Amino acid sequence: MDTGNPPEAVADRHEAVLVVDDSVVQREHAGALFRSLGVAQIHEAQHGLQALQLLAELPVPPCLMVIDLEMPEMDGIELIQQLSRRGIRIPFLVASSREGALVRAVESMATTLGMPLLGGVAKPLTAELLASALQRCHAVETGEPLLPATGLPMPIAPERLEAALAQGLVLPYYQPKVDIRTGLVRGVEVLARWTDPVLGVVPPDRFIATAEKHGLILRLTQSIADQAMGQLASWMSHGLAMSMALNLSPLVLQTPGLVEGISALLARHGLAPGQLVLEITEGSVVSYDAQTMGVLGRLRMRGMGLSIDDYGTGFSSMQQLARIPFTELKIDRSFVHKAHQQAHLRVILQSALEMAGRLGLVSVAEGVETLADWRLLQQFGCTLGQGYLIARPMAGEALPRWLKSHEARLPSLRMPTAESETS
Ligand code: C2E
Ligand code: CA
Ligand code: CA
């Protein structure tokens, strides 16, 4: 097929990009930026259809596409869907001058389709943005996992994690969950931290996925649960009564004997099942089979709490959620922080809290970072709050000291009285 582009000209895949935009000015702007970054071949298309035609004809595909959303003939949304249908997985950026909510909606659509989206960006494009996108394309082509748009670091090698587990370097940290009306501590969420002598404190984003992928998640969860329950028992013996929330990966739910295992661990530490809440992400609920539902039902029957974590990010249906005996709805921080600034977040937050209330579920807002977030949650009748405003996750031995300092803050966190609300 003669395309006017001899294969030699694009022999190096890194040298070619495709800009899909109906505006000539925008295409030229993107082209100039790519050229300044040393990209030799800049293909252009005015809309989705033209882009698909071009991709079918090009002897070597581009390494990166920039896709505008609003275009005649075929818009950016349909283009992404068509690319997915045709199995064309070229990394791309979505660029739009429209409001953030639209770009976020497209981002989640692309993620759901499993498309290699590098991120949604607001126009005008900048050289820094494109340079970072080009860099991330290299990772895709060398078979490394795609870096999320947030630029999170790469996951860690499984051998390293296994050694860290064996050496007891993966520890539970604790973040308080507090009563929204009073600020009083009701429980803690247990968050895994790998404290490495060389790497420093490694956050879970860098090793949970590795643990899941390489058969280490059960060991990790057992170790964290055991240490955390020991800590809770010790706090209790010093008069600190509270509940504890553990994060459970969906893989762990498939472990034979899980219900008995957790019950035995609780008993060994002298804890009541009602003190334990198991957090399960909303995203994983979609894939539960009858076996997993049975496990959740049995955990609940034994008296443990079940929380839907990251609520609002998981695309579960009401029907799927209704089948699981949840006791708590934990609203994702993306709806909590900034809800006081953005009307659409506020509406989602308020309806989720209302729904939780009507279903008799405890509602938890995560990612409470400011007093404005906090006041809004009080106004909306949320049950518990968790976030940097109250405390960052901390080591077990730091908690008693933190509790003392927190007591002094209670008056400023308390819900304004009924009189001051009506006046
Ligand atoms: P998650 O369950 O949604 O946990 C909440 C995350 O939000 C934690 O991140 C916490 O440090 C962070 N966070 C808390 N308050 C704020 C805030 O006000 N603002 C912001 N921006 N962030 C806040 P972390 O500790 O890095 O954990 C990340 C994820 O790793 C957790 O998300 C959870 O899904 C997973 N994870 C952590 N520990 C375990 C574990 O033991 N087992 C499993 N399966 N997953 C775990
Ligand atoms: Ca959680
Ligand atoms: Ca969460």
Automatic annotation (TrEMBL):
Residues 154-407 form the EAL domain. Residues 16-138 form the Response regulatory domain. The keyword Phosphoprotein applies. SMART domains: EAL, REC. It comes from the Bacteria. SUPFAM superfamilies: CheY-like, EAL domain-like. Keywords: Phosphoprotein. This is EAL domain-containing response regulator. It comes from Aquincola tertiaricarbonis.
